[in-house]
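Cross-check.
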Amino acid sequence: MDAQSRGRADEIDPADQWVLNPQTGDYELRLTQSGGDSYRAPSAPSPRGSGRRGAVRDDDGEGRSGARDGSGRGPAPRREVPGQRGRRPANGPRGPEGSGPEAGGRRKRKQQKGRRKKALIWTGGVMAFVLVALSVGAYALYQHFNSNLSSVDVGDAGNKNVVTANAPLNILIIGTDKRTGKGNQGYGDKGSTGHADTNILFHVSKDRTNATALSIPRDLITNIPDCTTKQPDGTEKVIPGTQDIRFNVSLGQDGRDPGCTMRTVEEITGLKVDHFMMVDFNAVKELSTAVGGVKVCLAHAVKDSKSHLDLPEGESTIQGEDALAFVRTRHSFGNESDLDRIKVQQQFIGSMIRQMKSDDTLTSPTKLYKLANVATSALTVDSAIGTGKKLVSLAKELSKVDTKNITFVTAPVIDNPAEKVHATVVLNTAKSDPLFAMMREDTSLTEVAAQKKAAKSKQDALLKGTKAAAADVRVDVLNGGDIPGAAQQTVTWLQNQQGVLKSTNKANAPEKISKTTLTYAPNQADQARALAAMMGLPGSALKQGTVDAEGLQAMVLTLGADFKGAGVPVTGPAKAPDGIQKASADKAECAK
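Predicted model, tokenized:
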């Protein structure tokens, strides 16, 4: 289905589902029918707050200007319907409730080009804790929703562009424990400024065929790097880093903003985070209600006095307070840990994704309006995506990901060995390192035929052809990663263990890079293949120039953040480590 077909039922143009709300003076979705041609739309606050009554509507549906504005200056001028595309014959296709020539005739007035607003039907692929509705559902966003959004300038912690062409996309979803919103006083920490309570790094592949949703436990002990934050007066303040501390205090503590959490995720995974989206408790309640409820399945009945979750065995449809209780409970499933709660949250998200993409949602103007209003009201984002238009641009990229190719995974951890009573966890590096390497190399955790074929072709191209003898490989090594002395370490390893005697330490690179690269001339391809085989470089690391090398000119190897040590292959494994917790967004599971 193409973009313009989404949201249509019986050949209804989504742009024709908008009418003027007399209470707000804004065009909104036409939702119900009364007596054939009388239209209603949900009331929404006017961004201007003008109080203008606008036009009233005759019983036959024909628009007329019978109301005066507060100044008594006479009829208010007509407004153009957002997204309406040109003139339509009186008896041509109309909206879901309109019938008869009146509705068609009403649309025949000429539009003013400069004032035309477009109804944007939005189907995306981001999913996350309670935010999934923002981008995997269908949305009709129009201009006043911009005022719903809150944004934070995170500086160079993120990407100034909405997306970077021909590159993977990483979005950090943060669910805070801040007690904002009606009825949330009993949740989270009483005095919390909003910690990073639930965290999902949503990695979308470069070819947009698949995505990995990596949950990061809030109780993970890690290092939080220094981070620069923007103050209300426009000045910058550097928040000092902290060693060996819970991940969740990367937000809120000591004035840290979401940019600090983004930097912490990069420190842990080696993945540069492009954007963040942050929500609070209210988002779960309101989004689950707006979509008409989310189906969940329980392997056994639950009656939890702490979270107030009370559900029978089997399938239930939950919304509001029940939905929040379901994703917050940690005493109802598994061994009552935060890791088991993450599993339940992933099941909830997967179900919400399926609900968002169902026909019940995509063809319902009522749900579309509610979702758009609730989602934008619930969001705080980085300033690079801080408008409805930019979010739509982002969603167009995300919409390419098929639900069956979205994989949930939790960062592999073990109990913290430094504690007698285990309250925190640390990374299980034997499993987390290869998992993070797969994500850095953009290797899918889901079998995607197109990507698998492309990866095989790339590897075949790398291995095809002759390889130069080690003694003939000439390379300059620069350190653009995070390990001090990595260039010298690599040169020592190449010379002593690989026989590459023509390798030279060129110290630090001009700037840090995330991925290791090997730049070479066309007549050095055999040397590049040889060095790539020695170091375990992926095909994506090889960058061939256009001009042949002359004389003693060497190749240039620049070590990136993905370099973990001399002799450690830079390329990620072909498949995920055994024993890690995984789930697919398109499969329903029962919480145990």
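Residues 1-20, 25-142 have pLDDT under 50 and may be disordered. The longest helix spans residues 338-356. Passed to J.P. for a second look.
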